Amino acid sequence: MNKTILVLILCLVRVLVYAQSITVVTSFSVLGDIVKNIGGNKVTIVSIVGANQDAHNYELKPSDLNTIAKSKILFVNGLGLEAFGLDSIMKSYHGYKVVVTKGINPLLLQDNVNKIRVDPHVWSNPLNVANYYVPNILSALVAISPENKKYFTQNAQNYITELTQLNKWVVLQFKGINPRNLQAITTHDAFNYFALQYGVKFISAQGISTDSDASAKDISNLEKLIKSSNIKVVFLENMTNNQLIRQIAEDTKAKIGGELYSDALSLPNQPANTYINMIKYNVTTLCKAWKTH
Ligand SMILES: [Zn+2]
Asked: In order of start, what are the domains of the chain with their CATH numbers?
């Protein structure tokens, strides 16, 4: 066959495949990867808040609004994560809206100005992803594209198996560590569901969202707590301003144990480029720091 014709046919096939795939928007990169695992090659995904970006303080761009308007499904985390403006846009969205945390009984926490807030960081526990995110995503994809039900269901089952194995792996990693060492300071309160699942303790410098600054009194109280609880290690985060945590480390002589990925994946060439890789990287980083002090 003539080479030019072959190339043209291949281009046409690609265009047709693209045209048939479901255009999906997810609010942040972690959710984008979770949806990809179930939607596979039947979906084209755009995440509004991208890799290494902060979902709490994101500013919507005109191009984001355009992307959202053209999509068939909009997946959001809910529980206040999308307070950067996406939650109000959702009200006028004409596509299929899905809140992936639907059904969960969320954790309520007191923030640093003594306000009770719902904790949106549900994904930090892989079993929450398996029990809530995956079924909610699956039923939405099946509703939009029933002809692919078998494909989506199989993908969802495979992914739930991977997440269940991931949970077992995390339990195993923490087993050999002195329970007194299983505590750390992070920039913001993104790991409460993780902490509850694995019996570890995280205290944050900034509270549940990155949208508020810690006061001088908060910092002084935190530094006292670090000393009295004998916390020896603090962690940076990939999507927040880490200046405060560096200062706390310097004041208290705590060690910086590395960088954790909390509300955003890394870039593709970095170690937390999928949700599962993100959990693995965080756990490996935590274990390394906790074992060596
Ligand atoms: Zn967060």
From this structure: 3-167 (3.40.50.1980), 174-291 (3.40.50.1980)
pTM assigned to the model:
0.90
The alpha carbon of 205 and the centre of ligand 1 are apart by a number of angstroms equal to 12
Kindly give the distance from the C-alpha atom of residue 148 to the centroid of ligand 1, in angstroms, as a whole number: 34
- d(C-alpha 35, C-alpha 37), whole Å: 5
**Alpha-carbon separation of residue 119 from 10, 51, 207, 215 (angstroms):** 47, 21, 10, 21
- Report, as an integer, the average pLDDT of 75-86: 94
Q: What span, in angstroms and rounded, lies between the C-alpha atoms of 280 and 115?
A: 32
The one-letter amino acid code at 52 reads N
Question: How do residues 236-281 score in pLDDT, each as one tens digit?
Answer: 888 777 888 888 889 989 999 999 999 999 999 999 999 999 999 9
**What is the whole-number distance in angstroms between the Cα of residue 216 and the centre of ligand 1?**
21
Alpha carbon distance 72, 150 (integer Å)? 20
Please count the CA atoms within 13 angstroms of the CA of 184 that sit on its side-chain side.
Answer: 34
